[in-house]
Amino acid sequence: MIGEGLQSTNQRKHSYVQDRVEVGFFTDPSVCIGCKACEVACKEWNQVPDDGFTWTGNSYDNTGHLGASTWRHVMFLEQDRAKGNQVAGTMSLGDGEDPFRWVFLSDVCKHCEEAGCLEACPTGSIVRTETGTVFVQNDVCNGCGYCVVSCPFGVIDRRPSPLPDAGGAFKCTFCYDRQKSGLVPACAKVCPTESIVFGRLDDLRAHARKRVEDLRQHGYNDAQLYDPTDTSVRGIHAFFLLLGEPEAYGLPPRPQVPTIYLKSAWTAAFATAIASIIATLVAFAFSS
Amino acid sequence: MDAPASEKRLEQLREKAWQEGVVPGRGVDVVGGPIPRKPGYYGEPVVKPPVWTWEIPLYFFFGGIAGMSAVIALAAILFHHVDVARAAMWLAAIAGAVLSPILLIMDLGRPHLFLNMLRVFKHRSAMSMGAWILTAFGACAVPGLIALELHAHQIFAGTPDQLLSFATVIFIFGAAIFGTLLATYTGVLIGATAIPAWFLHRTLLPIHFGTAGLGCAAAVLELFGYRISALNFIGFYTAAVETALLIWLSFDKHGAADRAIHEHGSGWFIRIGEVLNGPLALLLRFFGFIPLAAISFLAGALVSRIGWIAVGKVSGADPEAVFASQR
Fold it and tell me: Domains (ranges, CATH) in chain B?
């Protein structure tokens, strides 16, 4: 972590897979400089194809959103509030009357404790790894698209033609291949400010809580942790520090895993099934 | 802001900067920037809209017909309407064991891996349950149809024929049970997702899809010339339930969270579909225009299924709908 140099969990070799340790990412926008090295490292290591060079006009973000071929996405928020004690304005420099801040956050698959995509997958292609992360086995996926609508964070997507491996569902693998060899995920490894920290989930959560406290003491009054442990998602392995509301980052304020809707939906289905059989039998019984 | 006014303001700012070194107050508010005013993160979707194309609403339509045809076939066999039972089983087998799998496989991103659907059995995945229900339905409907035809044509005599007639009832019973699930699980499938307009109506959807499936099965049989009062009764029952669902849907509103059902083009699909297979089908049937009522019901069911998928696409792409459904 920050200040630990080569002793940081971002740089050390590890054996989390072999030791079956729960791992996570903690992403902290207060130190992110928006360099997009994580996006590049992810694309390079995982050989993710390019998905178009489009100009969005949304600040310096021309990536747009997470998808089948975008597994890290650096967001650029332009907000009319102050960032901590920083003094900045769109035009009025110095008088603090017209505050402005630029916030960067590297978004990624959340690797939910109760993962909607994993629950929905009918082929068993999506599995949970030894380190508690969620992994798509590309050679098993038949591209049914059900995980796409089951993800409460809109992360996983089906890759369209004519890109390589088109038709399958893709998302962040948490660099499972690197982790198996004791390496740190590519995005965390390259992050120059350790805005992305990789490590043991417990350690990261403790570190994140301390970081929020520190920031609040330094005037970042709207610093908060985004880790929905109190909803049916039951926490995420890739959690975030946010400045301001989750909505501004396109994050759902109270995400729910869609399996919680199954009970009422199946009850309605069974009731309809029984009603249809009875109605049909009655129809034939009274007209015979 | 129009261009001349902002140009004028820029001139003022330059003048002030030149004279005083600093510029107090607001600058030029460029339309569309620099502070984003779209909901969420530049209006980007929070959840992903469905990637499904035209095959899926058609599958919902034919799957519903197939499944509920088997129920009609079972009742028809039990009450000795062998002709109706044969037609219904042909319908069940063609729509359920031929058209439905073809449509489902066509929609896959990798159709050649379709058999992976039967790699695992996951009761918490409606898609997995659906794949198994469709398989079980096909495994009952096809032998059920063969046995029924062999029995009806008196191919065998004596004990083999008695066994055949016993097997017919068993297979058709199985097809009817799995058929009711085939017609209703599709509502669970889209109801148990992260798409706000879908999960907010997760109890309505299975009722709607199942009931519309039953009405469609009866309507197709009527259009094929089987005008018996039992099918007419089913037509009345299903159109009445659909009318009730239309009223339910117009009261059970969730504001911005499910506005895709009430606004946009997708809302019109839902409304037109519900009117066609609800009140209009009911009225036409009441006044004795049975073929017209059947056509109206079928058209309504098809339009409404297209509408529900369209609603999912609109609702999934709408960040405010997701926020509103969670507040």
Answer: 55-326 (1.20.1630.10)
pLDDT tens across B12-63, in order? 777 877 787 666 555 554 554 455 578 899 999 999 999 999 999 999 999 9
For position A96, what pLDDT does the model report?
46
Q: Are residues A284 and B76, on separate chains, in Cβ contact within 8 Å?
A: yes
Provide the domain limits for residue A283.
259-288
Closest-CA distance of chain A to residue B317, Å: 10
> Alpha-carbon distance A261 to B38, whole Å?
30
Interface of B with A in 275-294 (CB under 8 A): none
Q: Contact A122/B24, CB-based, under 8 Å?
A: no
Residue B63: which of B231, B195, B175, B224 has the closest Cα? Answer: B175
What is the model's pLDDT at position B32?
A: 47
In chain B, % of residues over pLDDT 70: 93
CA dist B117 and A123 (Å) reads 5
Helix axis angle, A262-287 to B204-223, nearest 10°: 30
For residue B183, the chain A residues in CB contact (below 8 A) are 273, 276
CA B33 to chain centroid, in Å, comes to 40
- Alpha carbons A192 and A188: distance in angstroms, whole number: 9
Question: Which of the pair, A125 or A219, is modelled with greater confidence?
Answer: A125
In this structure, the answer to whether residues A249 and A267 fall within a common structural domain is no
- Number of folded domains that form chain A: 2
Do A287 and A191 have their domain in common?
A: no
Q: Is B260 on the interface with A (CB under 8 A)?
A: no
User: Do A281 and A168 sit in the same domain of this protein?
Assistant: no
Which residue, A115, A102, A47, A110, is CA-closest to A73? A110
